[in-house]
Amino acid sequence: MELAEAIILAVLAASTPLLIAATGELVTERSGVLNLGVEGMMIVGAACGFAGAWLTGSIFIGALFGIAAGTLMSLIFALMALGLAVNQVATGLALTILGVGLSGLIGAGFVGERITPAVHLTIPGLTDIPLIGRVLFGEDAFVYFSIALIIGVWWFLYRSRAGLILRACGDNHVSAHALGYPVLRIRTFAVMFGGACAGLAGAYLPLAYTPFFIPGMTAGRGWIALALVVFSSWRPGRLVVGAYLFGAVTILQLHAQGWGVGIPSQFMSALPYLATVTVLVLLSRTRTGGSTAPAALGTVFVPDR
Amino acid sequence: MQAHQRMFDPTSNGLHSGEPPLLQTLGLTKCYGDFLANDSIDIDIWPKEIHALLGENGAGKSTLVKAIYGLIQPSAGEIRWQGKPIVLSGPSEARSRGIGMVFQHFSLFDNLTVAENVALGLDGRESFKDMSARLEQVSKTYGLPLDPKREVWQLSVGERQRIEIVRALMQDPKFLILDEPTAVLTPQEADQLFTVLERLKAEGRAILYISHKLEEVKRLCDTATILRGGKQVETCNPRLETAASLARMMVGSEIKQVKAPAGRKTTVPRLVVNDLSLARGEAHRVRLEHISFELKGGEILGIAGVAGNGQDELFAALSGERLSKDPGTVVIEGIAAGHLSITRRRKLGAAFVPEERLGHGTAPRMKLSENALLTGHAASGMVHHGFIDTAATLKTVDRATETFDVRKAKRDPEAASLSGGNLQKFIVGREILRNPAVLVVSQPTWGVDAGAAAVIRQALLDLATAGAAVLVTSQDLDELAEIADRIAVMFHGRLSAPLATSEATREKLGLLMGGSSLEPKEAAHAVGA
Predict the structure, then answer these.
(1) Sheet of B335-336, strands arranged across
(2) Most-buried pick from A85, B3, B62, B302 (CB within 10 A)?
(3) Does the pLDDT of residue B519 top 90, yes or no?
């Protein structure tokens, strides 16, 4: 019983950064931009988030630092890929390389320092309910925020006019431009939202997951978030399922090693990617028509004036 | 006659005394670098008028309407709306003033629903629910039925155009611009569109109608402004002109008539297609079903049909871009070739000219000689022991240039630097110079100026006279009537039985293009089944 609760708690904690980063990337990709720099934006968010929290003693300000850092990183991407119409794949990869280096530089002075991690909610009575008490009523603010975030994004995309326009830009930027929508401006906002989310997801790691900073602590989570967006076929509902599934895989991999199950840990680490490939194959086989990916994804747009 | 007077005497305001035109451009000029896309255009649009804008590709029609719709800013000159000068910051401002536009290349979103597409074209002041209700009402009023919940990729081209029109009408525009609206419609669908346009005119709206179908313009339009090379050539009453005189104004010179050479004989079957079926290659595509025909040497078979009914797929199956499991489905020169690659088919004597000039017919950033090699390597002696014979490739370019009057800046430029018509002449020339036994050509004169079109059509006729079998896919019924001996129609991946061109009236072809059968009995049977 206690082990089950511990596993669920660990899965939630491991899934939350994936969910936040992937939610941001989902919005970016829905606007037609492929930003492969999630890993880079996350790691810079982690370094700056820790720095902010360590300097001010406030987890909240640390999180804001992470968001700001991720957004700034995404603005570099927006300048290159949208402003100068550079190839998005190359720019995104460069952004990740830049981010890894930059985070090492920013975080160098903070390695070995510790902070008090984000507090968990306690509601007397409710939090003490066995099994589900701590899962539902004893999480940190990041976990609740991530769920509010994805619900908000779902509402935005499917219920608001701004979301419709954003999806339209991702489907056909030429048409969107012809109807008079500022495609590049809309995409810049989408990229910035993606950056803010990635920064926050990165900051979650040293602020709540482990209370210290080490270089390279995102450990490929940015790539998993990217795979997750594809896995979800660009739908918020499936994204939630996928995030917890991928989070569960990473946690089970640790426990499996602990229990001495004879599956190589490398295979378990590769599972999220295998799952993504499988989903892609299944989607393309069962598809009756229409395209699952935003049709303009990753293509450069230069408006004529 | 009153209307006629106005057209030729701008000072007499007999019909519109006192009031200014609805929309007016004064010296409207747009340049891109040194290139003058529009050179001082003056155009007056009045309410209750259908005004045609005529011109060849590159004459500046699109540039002009883009400026009127606020998509681009003019370099000089002004636009007046109801007598007052205006500067349009963008299409949404144009829409809010009462200017609507139906694009030639639809500005639709394939993966969104009809209602969402319409919503995107409006200013968003009403709720989605109210908008959907109004959509239904407008589409009913004008006889343009639409299902708001369907996604656009599921709809036919005609239905897609309906979305564009309904979307424009929902803003209750005073002035509506239509860019080549009938290019993708069957004759019957075009007639329905004309009824809608007449009704809009009667309601007091003005329409700017861009087209290069002259008969249509003569039938529908009250005034015509003709552009050539960015300049305004003439404003006239199209009903008082002949199609030939309008064409002369568009082109600036007489167009050579295409002549079928005498002494054409049909010989042995050179291209035979037997019960060819092909599954859908990818999403949004058509599947080919039981296609059969026989094409003899000396014969030109035309394939008509609305775009997207399987013509591209048929071309891919014939050229070998898509292979068939059953070799016997495509027979070239008596040899079963359904399973053979493009190169093997070329070696059998077939040649192919796809619809897309840049990217399919040629590699845009490669020189013409390299592009000649790309299709000529198989059978034209351009490669010796794996080495390219540069002299031979250049010779092909020179011969194509001479024979087909390809105009270019230097001897061997990049393909992308040629104009559409000249590049098309080069591609057709490149294939014809290989002396093919079978030529499959798709949309040979699409987007090509009238002069180049005549050269290409003549070349196809001459090739047939020389004994080759020619298969021409085209959406231009006049073109097919001019050169084809028989015409078949593609609809939903099926090919009708060919009709002799003399019997293939517009009405019959139109019915086939819309999916109806010519024999009433069969149609009844089909409904019952």
Answers:
(1) B288-296, B269-278, B330-332, B335-336
(2) B302
(3) no
Which of B73, B22, B19 shows the shortest CA–CA distance to B49?
B22
The three state secondary structure string of B78-120 is: EEEECCEEECCCCHHHHHHHCEEEECCCCCCCCCCEHHHHHHH
Rounded Cα–Cα distance for residues B69 and B72 (Å) = 8
* Dihedral sign computed on CA atoms, order B238, B242, B247, B248: negative
Whose CA is closest to B474, among B453, B445, B451? B445
Q: CA of B94 to nearest chain A CA: how many angstroms apart? A: 10
Torsion of CA B479, B481, B483, B486, to 10 degrees: 130
Cβ neighbours of A299 (radius 10 Å): 13
In whole angstroms, what separates CA B174 from the centre of its chain? 28
Among A165, A171, A302, A305, most B C-beta atoms within 10 A, so best to mutate, is A171
Count of beta carbons in the 10 Å neighbourhood of residue A53: 29
CA-nearest of A162, A157, A172, A290 to B108 is A172
B321 neighbors B343 (Cβ within 8 angstroms): no
How far is Cα A181 from Cα A49, in angstroms, rounded to an integer? 35
ipTM at complex level: 0.83
Q: Do A179 and B91 touch (CB under 8 A)?
A: yes
Rounded to 5 degrees, φ, ψ at A82 are -100, -50
Question: What are the tens digits of pLDDT across the range B249-305?
Answer: 888 877 677 777 777 888 899 999 999 998 876 656 788 999 999 999 999 999 998
Closest CA to B137 of B172, B98, B173, B170: B170
What residue spans define the domains of chain A? 2-284
A229, A204, A235: which is closest to A92 by C-alpha? A229
Rounded to the nearest angstrom, the gap between the alpha carbon of residue B523 and the centroid of all alpha carbons in its chain is 30
* Nearest in space to B174 (alpha carbons), one of B358, B48, B32: B48
CATH of domain A2-284: 1.10.3470
Tokens of A14: 């491991």
Q: Return the CATH number of B269-362+436-528, one of 3.40.50.300, 2.60.40.1930, 3.30.420.40, 3.40.120.10.
A: 3.40.50.300
Pairing of strands B269-278, B288-296: antiparallel
Nearest to B338 by CA among B354, B358, B321, B363: B321
pLDDT in tens, A168-220: 999 999 899 988 899 999 999 999 999 999 999 999 999 999 889 999 999 88
Q: To 10 degrees, what angle do helices A221-231 and A183-204 make?
A: 130
Task: Work out whether the CA dihedral A277, A279, A280, A281 comes out positive or negative.
Answer: positive
Indicate the length of chain B as a whole number. Answer: 529
* B458-487 confidence digits (pLDDT tens): 999 999 999 999 999 998 888 899 999 999
With beta carbons under 8 A apart, name residues in chain A contacting B106: 175
For residue B181, the tally of other CB atoms under 10 A from its CB is: 24
Say whether residue B279 is in contact with chain A using an 8 A CB cutoff.
no
Nearest by CB to B153, from A164, A289, A304: name it: A289
Chain A interface, best mutation among B110, B120, B129, by max A CB count within 10 A: B120
